[in-house]
Amino acid sequence: MQELTLRAYAFIDRMQPQFAAYLGSELDGDVPLAGMADLWIEMAPGSEVYPLLHQALMESPAKPGLQMVEREFGVIELHSESVDDLKEAGETILRAGNLKESQKITPTIVSSKIISKVNPYQAQQINKNRRGTLLLPGQSLLVFEVEPASVIVLAANEAEKSSNVALIDFKPFGRFGRLFLAGNDTEIRTALRAAKEAIEGR
Predict the structure, then answer these.
(1) Homologous superfamily of 108-200 in CATH?
(2) How far is CA 14 from CA 81, 100, 161, in A?
(3) Is the pLDDT at 69 greater than 60, yes or no?
(4) DSSP state of 173
(5) Where does 5-103 sit in CATH, by number?
(6) Up-side HSE of residue 65: CA atoms within 13 Å toward CB?
(7) Which of 89, 96, 113, 133 is deepest in the core (most CB within 10 A)?
(8) Half-sphere exposure of 83 (CA within 13 A, CB side)
């Protein structure tokens, strides 16, 4: 049997409005709301998410928004109005998996790119695949990538908290997590600093 690996344990104490709205439109399970606490756990082998989420739901009132196996990795998302209830759910999962939070992989920033004054044609290409706000021509665009993928949620939430940026899209699955933000150049640079701090502080 393959040893269980904790790839990510990403805890958010208060979801920002755009971040929560994005999740609410994308997750298959219970709908999260702005202001709730949010927890993402990524592990391998992926199929372990099924018994571990079951155990958490038996012992905690936290609500599941997602259980997903994406190739070799599994991801769980849980949220709650109570920070304590969500912490309890996370501790239950760790205990049931014989894991400690300290065993999670240290997140790495893979790349960060700022594109100033986005061309209208490139904006349209990005808008075809986005799930959030439309990217407008002439805005500055931040593309931010991290590993493991699910910790991108920390960058997305903190970047929104830091500045008046538009959340275009984020992808917390696969090998790398990707975040797309738009705004003026000053807002984007402030958001980038916040995103980096969110990842490097973990």
Answers:
(1) BMC (bacterial microcompartment) domain (3.30.70.1710)
(2) 9, 23, 10
(3) yes
(4) -
(5) 3.30.70.1710
(6) 22
(7) 89
(8) 6
